[in-house]
Every structure is written in structure tokens, then in C-alpha cells.
Specification:
Layout: H1 9-31, H2 42-72, H3 81-99, H4 104-108, H5 121-139, H6 146-160, H7 162-165, H8 175-178, H9 191-210, H10 217-247, H11 250-257, H12 260-277, H13 285-291, H14 294-306, H15 314-318, H16 324-397
Helix pairs in contact: 1-2, 1-12, 1-13, 1-14, 1-16, 2-3, 2-5, 2-9, 2-12, 3-5, 5-6, 5-9, 6-9, 10-11, 10-12, 14-16
Length: about 400
């Protein structure tokens, strides 16, 4: 951590890497022909493994950044401004998540398609932010150790008991709510267990804040991240087998058979350690700006690839139809185009919103006489209808 700023640039670098991985991952996964999805192919297996790391890293980094800023601005005897901003941000992400799955043609015809209710990464990150705020509000004045204990405790509980709650029947709930807990209706992510990665990121942020002035912060953090991360990757499965053998609890053997949560957590820690190790070389301004513009990149990529609002995207035209050479070239072009448009938007968004505001005011002023006239007509019509009904009522009564 530099002396001139408290910003942790390695986190921006992690987010930049994760969002770029997401872009190529979504493009290749959505457009590659099924005949080339060969798990015996080393390159495809390697790509598939690294694609699986993207979401856990992104959730963890998001929880880290929000919690780091949340406790950084905490002020004694006054409300933390980050709480209000976080609540606004959480609901904003949820709203954007739904808007991106809205089809304007369906709205104009009075129909909302089932895909509108599918829960994706933005919904889960939004609720994760709200969840971290709720935990913070409950625990901030209780004890210095309660907040981090709850965060890491939630991660452990959600990861340990995933085989149990994943098998629950959520059909009793409306799909709108059930989609946050089950993938049965097409949801890409669910709040459980993904909230666990966000809370773990918050836990790491608390450790960084507590020891931010320690001279051995990074050597210790790098060593622990790599050591614990590699341990989770290679030793967590044998550990759960041993626990099952010793205790006779079947839950542990179920975790062993599908131990992706703890292994992916190990991947996250190794990635954090790697980026911290190379932090001095990750000061490229463009790369850091990409890490700070992930929401814009996500929105633009969704519109181009999946056809938000119109339904006309690359996915609808080239779904599982491209060869490896074409899809790799297309993925690179897609990454460059999406990132370029997002950075242009970030650079000019104040001007864009200013023009939108001016256009809105102009439209309102221009249409004001017509809306006033229409309101007068409607009012006159309602008054005449009321008089007619009153006369009709008297006639019927007589």
C-alpha cells in the first residue's frame, strides 16, 4: 500500500482480469460449436478450468472492495455515508440485472418473458452488498471481532451445507423468489452459496484494514494466500474424506464428491497471492481503469452478446455454431470492442447524462402545451361522464 494513496491497485487489476476473462468466457461458451467441446483436449480443459475461476474471483473482489470502503470511512458518533451509498448501489445492481433481461417487444405487447426473472451475477452481487451492510449494522457496535467472525462464519456454513440446501424443493415459492435459491428455472447464479464468496472477500478486507500499516503486510498476505489456497485446492477433498471416515457424517462425503466451492476458494486465494506478488507491475492506467469500469463493461457485453432489450444479439445468430479458430478471433475482437465502448462511455458519461437531461427538459417544455390540453379534455370527459351516470342513476331509480 503506497504512502500517497490507500487504494489497493492489485484489486483493480484482479477485477480487470476477471472481467476480461468473463468476456471471452461468455463469448466462447455461447458460440463455440458443441462438436469441439472435448474434455480430453488439454487446451479446452485448461480454458474451462480458468473460466470456472472467474465468478468466484469476481464475487470475492466485489465483497473485498465494498467492505474495505465501508469500514474505511466509518466515523465515530455519525452515520457511515457508505451505508447509504451501498444500499443505493445494491438496489441499482438488482434493477440493472432485471432491465438487462427485459425484452421491449414483450413489454409493448403486454408480455413479460420468463427469462426476465432469471437471476444472474448482478442480482447476487447486489444482494450480497445489502447482506454485508446488514451484518455491519448489526455487529459494528458489539465487538471488533464480531463483524469478521460473522463474515467468515457465513462462508464456512454456506460452503459446508451446500449439499443440503441445494436439494431443497423451492416450488412452494413464486418463481420470482425461488430463482434466487435454485437453478431449476434457468438462473445462472443463486444467492446461496455465492454470497459466501462475497463475505469471504469482506473478511479479507477487514484483515487488510487492520494490518494496513504493518511493514510485512504483503509478504505475510502473499505467503498465507498461496499456502492456504494451495491447501484448499489439493488437500480439502482428502480432508473431507477423512472427516467422513472419523465422524461417520455423510455430509462430508457429499462435499467430497462435489467439492467445487472450497477448491474454487483456493483458486481465489492463489490468484490474490499472485496479483499481490506482481502488484508493482500492475500500474498500467488503462488496465486499472478497466478494473474500475466493470459494470459498464458487463452491461455493454450483455447488450452485444445476448441482445438485451431487443433480443438481437450475437448469441441468437451464432449460438453454438462457430469453429475454434473463428470463436477465438471473435472473442479477442469482442473483448477489445466491448472494453473500448465501455471506456469511451466512462470518459464521456457526464456529457452523455448532461445531453440526456437537456433533451428531457426540452421534450417536457415542448410537450407541455399538448399535455395540458390533453389533461383538460380528459377532465372535461370525466365530468361529463359523471353527470351522465348521475342522470342515468336517477332515471333508473325513478
Amino acid at each position: 500500500m503506497g504512502s500517497k494513496t490507500n487504494r489497493l491497485y492489485f484489486i483493480d487489476a484482479i477485477r480487470a482480469w476477471a472481467i476480461l476473462m468473463m468476456l471471452q468466457g461468455h463469448f466462447i461458451d455461447g458460440l463455440l460449436d458443441n462438436t469441439f467441446r472435448d474434455s480430453s483436449n488439454f487446451l479446452y480443459t485448461l480454458w474451462s478450468y480458468f473460466r470456472g475461476i472467474t465468478a468466484p474471483i469476481f464475487f470475492t473482489a466485489s465483497g473485498f472492495i465494498f467492505t474495505y470502503l465501508l469500514i474505511k470511512t466509518d466515523a465515530t458518533n455519525s452515520a457511515n455515508p457508505r451505508v447509504k451509498k451501498g444500499i443505493k448501489r445494491g438496489f441499482q445492481l438488482i434493477l440493472i440485472g432485471y432491465l438487462l433481461r427485459m425484452n421491449l417487444l414483450g413489454v409493448l405487447t403486454g408480455e413479460i418473458y420468463p427469462s426476465f426473472y432469471i437471476v444472474d451475477v448482478l442480482h447476487c452481487i447486489g444482494f450480497s452488498i445489502l447482506g454485508i451492510i446488514g451484518i455491519y449494522q448489526i455487529s459494528k457496535q458489539k465487538s471488533n471481532y464480531l463483524f469478521p467472525s460473522i463474515l467468515v462464519g457465513i462462508t464456512i456454513i454456506l460452503f459446508l451445507f451446500e449439499p443440503i440446501y441445494i436439494s431443497f424443493d423451492y416450488t412452494i415459492l413464486p418463481n420470482f423468489i425461488a430463482n434466487y435459491f435454485t437453478k431449476a428455472n434457468g438462473s445462472i447464479f443463486t444467492i446461496l452459496p455465492w454470497f459466501g464468496y462475497a463475505t469471504f472477500g469482506g473478511f479479507i478486507a477487514l484483515l487488510f484494514t487492520k494490518y494496513k500499516n504493518h511493514k510485512n503486510l504483503y509478504p505475510t498476505a502473499i505467503t498465507l494466500s498461496l499456502f492456504i489456497g494451495l491447501g484448499l485446492m489439493f488437500l480439502s477433498s482428502p480432508f473431507f474424506v477423512t472427516l467422513s471416515y472419523i465422524t461417520g457424517i455423510s455430509l462430508f462425503i457429499e462435499i467430497f464428491y462435489n467439492n467445487y466451492l472450497f477448491i474454487r476458494l483456493g483458486d481465489v486465494l492463489v490468484a490474490f497471492g499472485f496479483f499481490m506478488l506482481l502488484r508493482r507491475y500492475m500500474n498500467n492506467n488503462t488496465f486499472l481503469i478497466i478494473g474500475q469500469s466493470t459494470l459498464s463493461i458487463y452491461i455493454i457485453h450483455f447488450m452485444i452478446l445476448y441482445g438485451s432489450f431487443t433480443g438481437l444479439g450475437l448469441y441468437s445468430h451464432f449460438h453454438h455454431s462457430l469453429s475454434p479458430y473463428v470463436v477465438v478471433f471473435g472473442a479477442i475482437l469482442f473483448m477489445l470492442t466491448t472494453t473500448f465502448l465501455a471506456l469511451k462511455y466512462e470518459k464521456n458519461k457526464n456529457i452523455i447524462f448532461k445531453h440526456i437531461s437537456i433533451s428531457y427538459r426540452w421534450t417536457r417544455i415542448t410537450l407541455n402545451p399538448w399535455t395540458t390540453f390533453a389533461y383538460s379534455l380528459l377532465k372535461m370527459y370525466l365530468i361529463k361522464s359523471r353527470l351522465f351516470l348521475l342522470k342515468l342513476f336517477r332515471l333508473v331509480k325513478n
